[in-house]
DNA sequence: CATCTGTTATAGGAATGATATAACAGATGG
DNA sequence: CCATCTGTTATATCATTCCTATAACAGATG
């Protein structure tokens, strides 16, 4: 998977990294059990500091998207807590929907957007 | 509307302010043409600096959620650019859906969440 | 033993977030 | 006219965050 960082974005690099990897998992570009590049390798590849990648990996580990093994490095491993996941999704979705509603995007249009994305990702 | 700030959150105060006001608009607690408190009044009310509120108002103005008039202060005024709005909503939604998919939240559950929120807000 | 993992410590520089004080221009109401 | 209310701008300061840099450590591999 190609990870793309926008160095001119106002979003922190480590946040972009987290989001890109999560997007990669959701779109099956990364699969359960698959290894991610080592912190040093990925840092070298995208031209950032090792600690920036390490920070992203540590966050993804803490949030249950991957597990880290000194032998194999960072490995995709999803920790599912469905109830908490739904609660978190609802909160994040609320912010997005609020902005959308202010722009006159109605319920049907939002459902269409959701379907679009699920379709595009093969869900 | 009661604006609630979490001073222990890792989200910046001015970001929380923006989100709360957008949520307020989406849920009809604020209506088109309605006045918001003055920067000084709101800052006093929630116990933050005037400039912090001013920053939030300036952002909301730039993003087209309100207009600012020296006479009447900050007034809800939605600037609708439907195409751009859909594009932005899609991007924000992608991040939320990616996290949700990683937690095994399927398409139907996501649609249910969307309906839940629209229902709760009277959409 | 050399080399690869993640991890930790420490430090420095740049940018951001929040505060504080102060002043200005425009509009309002007495 | 004047006191008072708007948003806005200009400084300055302080703490925190982001990113980088250098270095070292423990565990596992071949």
Outline the structure in words.
- 2 copies of one chain form a homodimer.
- Chain A has 123 residues and is mostly helical.
- Chain A folds into 2 domains: 13-76, Arc Repressor Mutant, subunit A (Orthogonal Bundle), CATH 1.10.10.10; 82-121, no CATH class.
- Helices cover 57% and strands 7% of the residues of chain A.
- Chain A has 5 helices and 2 strands; from the N terminus they run αααββαα.
- Chain A has helices at 13-26, 39-46, 50-62, 82-102, 107-120; strands at residues 66-69, 73-76.
- Chain A has a two-stranded antiparallel ribbon with strand order 1-2.
- In chain A, a hairpin with a 3-residue loop joins strand 1 and strand 2.
- The longest helix of chain A has 21 residues, at 82-102.
- The first copy, chain A, is globular and about 50 Å long.
- The two termini of chain A are 19 Å apart.
- In chain A, 29% of the residues are buried.
- Chains A and B meet through helix 1, helix 4 and helix 5 of A and helix 1, helix 4 and helix 5 of B.
- The structure holds a DNA duplex (30 and 30 nucleotides).
User: How many structural units, i.e. domains of chain A?
Assistant: 2
State the major sheet of chain A.
Answer: 2 strands, antiparallel
Mean pLDDT rating of chain A: 93
Give the C-level CATH assignment of the largest domain in chain A.
Mainly Alpha
Strand order of the largest sheet of chain A: 1-2
Instruction: State the share of residues found in helices of chain A, binned by percent.
Output: 55-70%
The largest chain-to-chain contact, stated as pair and per-chain residue counts, equals:
A-B, 43 and 43 residues
Oligomerization: homodimer
Per CATH, which architecture of the largest domain in chain A? Orthogonal Bundle
Total beta-strand segments of chain A? 2
């Amino acid at each position: 998977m190609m990870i793309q960082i926008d160095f001119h974005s106002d979003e922190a690099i480590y946040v972009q990294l987290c989001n890109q990897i999560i997007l990669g998992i959701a779109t099956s570009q990364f699969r359960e059990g698959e290894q991610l590049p080592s912190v040093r390798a990925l840092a070298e590849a995208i031209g950032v500091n090792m600690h920036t990648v390490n920070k992203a990996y540590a966050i993804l580990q803490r949030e249950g998207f991957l597990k880290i093994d000194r032998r194999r490095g960072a490995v995709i491993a999803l920790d599912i807590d469905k109830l908490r996941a739904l609660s978190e999704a609802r909160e994040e979705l609320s912010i997005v929907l609020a902005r959308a509603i202010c722009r006159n995007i109605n319920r049907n249009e939002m459902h269409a957007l959701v379907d679009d994305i699920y379709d595009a990702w093969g869900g």
